[in-house]
Specification:
Elements lengths: L3 E8 L10 E8 L2 H26 E8 L2 E3 L1 H10 L16 H13 L2 H28 L4
Antiparallel strand pairs: 1-2, 1-3, 3-4
Amino acid sequence: MKKTIQIKTSFHYGIASIGGKTLTYYTYKIGPRNLMRAITDLHEHSESMEHGYGNVGHQGSWIEIAGVRILPDDLAQYEFETDPSNYRDDYHMRATSKTVWLQDLIERCLDGRIVKERKELSEYMRREDTKRDAEFIAEHDSQW
């Protein structure tokens, strides 16, 4: 697999010529500045696809880095951590540089850390949900 940044879009089966397919619309060389450009292009591209195919026909657009899909949570975290207005001077914290943050995201995708982190989080959430369910049932068992 080529190590590139791609913007991909999925379409509903009901669309005649491209239904049920996932197409690559943009491809960039790997790098933080290109990823920054891809994020900007993704927003514009998604709006264009939504306008052209509607919310049912356009099933979604996303960014992939070397075949690893970037989740909306990753982009929201990027927006938050790089926005200086989210940090206060009295805590002596500064926003992370956009280039540094995106370079770290790229490295996590390339070496597989991001996939491992997602699996660990998923397993943790599953365990916590099971534990909460068991506690709820034990607490309310007499009511059933």
